[in-house]
Amino acid sequence: MAGLHSQTPEEAETGRDPDGRGHILQMLAAGYAELPEPRLVELARRDPDAFGELYRRTVERIYTYIYYRTGNVADAEDLTARTFHQALSNIHRYTDQGVPFIAWLYRIAHNLVANHHRSRSRWRTTPLDDLELTGKPAENPERAAEANERKQALWSAIRRQPEDRQRLLILKFADRLSNEEIGQLMGRTESSIKSLYFRTLKALKADLEARGW
What predicted TM-score, i.e. pTM, was given to this entire model? Predict the structure, then answer.
């Protein structure tokens, strides 16, 4: 008797398998990149490949967020891996509440980072110098040095801000999220984020002016 995956000459020539399952699986795998997020999340509850597509779509933003919250690559890589491991283990508990799936991932990442800092009993050292809020340095060495000095003063002022304001700036300038997206992640309305952003910039300006900038 022919085996389950035996093929007729016609099937071999066309590359089809007799029961069609391999072809269907290939189509599903190829189609994951085109699926809308809600459908992909639904599939990811039982299909690791679907979760892999969610990972591909979100890992860079989650890593960037954690990196600027922890200050070094090793911690960022470890906590990013733990974020997605926890997400995969608990995806059956995820419920769509009208916000992007990444909001749930950010919440997991935020909690892991908070636990990370508590366990080390230290405040984070964030390499905010890497953010390009002030643009690229000028080619002229003197201007470049002056620009770098201004940048360092700005980062110092940012570090003196409350945690929610620092988090807002990381999400806006490192992850380049919109006010609406930041609001979803921080549990605030878009107008509240706009107001917080305005107050943050005002506080930064006052801080810098008080220090001679």
Answer: 0.65
pLDDT over threshold 80, residue 34? yes
Domain residue limits at 181: 129-213
Q: CB burial class (10 A; 0-12, 13-18, 19+) of residue 87?
A: buried
The domain tally of the chain equals: 2
Of 104, 125, 146, the one marking the end of a domain is 125
Tell me, yes or no, whether 208 and 144 share the same domain: yes
| Tens-digit pLDDT profile for residues 3-12 | 434 443 344 4
- CATH number for position 175: 1.10.10.10
Same-domain check for residues 138 and 47: no
Residues 111 and 169 in one domain: no
SS (HEC) of the chain:
CCCCCCCCHHHHHHCCCCCCHHHHHHHHHHHHHHCCHHHHHHHHCCCHHHHHHHHHHHHHHHHHHHHHHHCCHHHHHHHHHHHHHHHHHHHHHCCCCCCCHHHHHHHHHHHHHHHHHHHHCCCCCCCHHHCCCCCCCCCCHHHHHHHHHHHHHHHHHHHCCCHHHHHHHHHHHHCCCCHHHHHHHHCCCHHHHHHHHHHHHHHHHHHHHHCCC
What is the amino acid identity at position 205?
K
